[in-house]
Amino acid sequence: MKDFIIVGAGLAGVSFAETALLNDKSFVVISDNSQNSSYVAAGLYNPVILKRFSLPQDAAVHLDYMGPFYKRIEERLGVKFDISLPVYRKFASVEEQNNWFQAADKAALEPFLSPKVLYTDYEGLPAEFGFGKVMHTGYVDTETLLNTYKKFLSDNVWLVQETFQHDLLEIKEDHVVYKGIEAQHIIFAEGFGIHANPYFKHLPLDGTKGELLLIKALDLKLDVAVNASIFILPIGDGFFKVGATYEWYDKTAVPTQAGRDELVEKLNELINCDYEIIEHLAGIRPTVKDRKPLIGTHPLYKNVHLLNGLGTRGVMLGPSMAKELYDSIITGNPVRREVGIQRFKNL
After folding, report:
1. Burial letters for 151-172: b for 16+ Cβ neighbours within 10 Å, e otherwise?
2. CATH number of 86-136+208-285
3. When you count CB atoms within 10 A of the terminal residue's CB, does the N or C end of the chain come out lower?
4. pLDDT at residue number 346
5. C-alpha to C-alpha distance for 208 and 221, rounded to whole angstroms
6. Which of 262, 322, 257, 336 is nearest to 65 (CA)?
């Protein structure tokens, strides 16, 4: 009998699989790759919500746990996917500079915001009012992480590549059974696919569509990530990721002309060099109305658990949320209410 069946192999599923592995637990992962938001994600991690100059709850804790977590995976798999990279906030006015200075003076934000205005001259990206530097930032190459991790799972016969059929799950008193696979617990880490899950589909995971461009701009000399009305993320060899849009009504993972036009318009306002659009991507982020994760154990089935709602900060939240859920399962203590499914009654 396995310790865990894990449904989903995006950032949430991989984070839980790695957590189980670190604790010498046995598992199998079932995934059909239908939820692609983890692949489409730019993978940027930034502890500060720059639009409001606020910190997500426990941001420093998530960052501190994330680094060693990914480092262990990199060393085991022999790949590099966690890239330290400064994030520069581009100022559009003196007022924005002043707002930055005020934010940098706050005790909670001081470790993350440099108090200086940087007038760095980047070819192809004019910045009359300069930049503010966010510290302890970078990005995770999610495609490299997920592809190499899934190969690792497959090589160890821990991966079943098929669509999970919820109606074939048998829930027993002290274990679950799925197509002959017995396990102590099942973890649903399906992202927006939660809406097909009869155990958790009533939870308020709305999903937000995001679109992103991959461009080639050889004349854009940028070695930092830039945050403005959109972000520009250099990924090497003259390639950049540009994003992202936020669409609350369209729930298809299909790129749209409207999304492309929005990104192109904002990009043209930022840079003054030629570029080529290489790829246009879209995915549905698993977002919750209160912007917090959804984790915990089903109120009626003690062996059925959820790891979801990581939203736009999946690379930063995934490792620590997987650990919190794992610890809850092992100890029998509920997860914290602010991230737990128990904060919603309509399960």
Report:
1. ebbeeeebbbeeebeeeebebe
2. 3.30.9.10
3. N
4. 64
5. 32
6. 322
